[in-house]
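Fill in residues.
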């Protein structure tokens, strides 16, 4: 069978991808989130608590994010094909970017809602608010427990986990607001808590937006130092120069590198290439590398500006 590059790439992804996707745990959390967001928004309207409604909106964005994450996982599992030589891994990053944008927009909308409530009089059923916030807290603890092992595996899992941390703090806030309102009748606490929830949402959204944009802009993957990679390649025996180096992520955890390596005129370049590939894999965990070997012959035109 002929070895085409897209087949080779797919094989690498499957073999070396450290991400074992736990879409089933996300699905369970998704179902719980959808059920509870309805409970929370309806409960917020009945009890008159803005922080419950805000938390319900928060849950809505979580449900949306989790749904997008699931869809993105399914899409990114599609194998590579001649028209998509990188496969569909980037779908995950696009979903993360959309999540980030959605979080930012919704948090701003709810902040405006909270601010408009400052000068109006309203009553809150703190008892109902308390019980709903308590159930929310338990559901968030359950969700965090479900996702805690997967959160380091990729951007969307991290995003999903961060959402739940925000939700847990939100539920804790709503719970304490209900207690304070019950004893003091100070409904302004409710507005302050809803603002706090939205700040957390905004923070998560901004980080998700920033990180996914970094990947879409082909930014150097987090934790990789290009200068260090360069000096390690230069350290390989026989290498006299490195240029035109690019390091990027196709998706979270899947890093690629391409570079031109200049070797001495009469050296045998194959062992050097193998040495470089081994070093990149072992030292930097870069599994997909494209190295253009160039012998330093002044008479040959390599069609490379730097040679
Ligand atoms: Zn959330
Ligand atoms: Zn050669
Ligand atoms: Zn390759
Ligand atoms: Zn070159």
């Amino acid at each position: 069978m002929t070895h085409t590059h897209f087949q080779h790439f797919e094989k690498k992804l499957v073999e070396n991808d450290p991400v074992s996707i736990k879409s089933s745990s996300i699905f369970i959390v998704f179902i719980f989130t959808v059920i509870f967001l309805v409970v929370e928004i309806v409960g917020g309207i009945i009890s008159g608590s803005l922080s419950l409604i805000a938390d319900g909106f928060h849950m809505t964005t979580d449900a949306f994010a989790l749904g997008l994450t699931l869809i993105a996982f399914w899409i990114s599992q599609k194998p590579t094909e001649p028209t998509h030589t990188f496969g569909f891994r980037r779908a995950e990053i696009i979903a993360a970017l959309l999540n980030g944008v959605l979080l930012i927009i919704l948090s701003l909308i709810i902040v405006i809602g909270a601010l408009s409530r400052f000068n109006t009089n309203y009553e809150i059923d703190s008892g109902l608010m308390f019980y709903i916030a308590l159930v929310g807290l338990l559901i968030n603890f359950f969700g965090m427990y479900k996702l805690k092992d997967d959160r380091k595996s990729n951007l969307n899992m991290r995003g999903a986990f961060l959402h739940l941390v925000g939700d847990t703090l939100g539920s804790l806030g709503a719970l304490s607001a209900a207690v304070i309102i019950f004893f003091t009748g100070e409904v302004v606490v409710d507005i302050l808590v809803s603002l706090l929830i939205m700040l957390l949402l905004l923070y998560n959204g901004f980080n998700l937006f920033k990180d996914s944009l970094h990947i879409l802009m082909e930014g150097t993957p987090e934790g990789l130092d290009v200068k260090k990679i360069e000096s390690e390649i230069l350290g390989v025996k026989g290498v006299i120069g490195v240029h035109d180096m690019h390091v990027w992520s196709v998706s979270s955890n899947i890093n690629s590198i391409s570079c031109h390596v200049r070797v001495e005129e009469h050296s045998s370049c194959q062992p050097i290439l193998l040495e470089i590939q081994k070093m990149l894999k072992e030292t930097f965990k870069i599994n997909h590398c494209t190295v253009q070997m160039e012998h330093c012959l002044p008479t040959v035109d390599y069609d490379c500006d730097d040679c």
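Confidence is low (pLDDT under 50) at residues 1-21.
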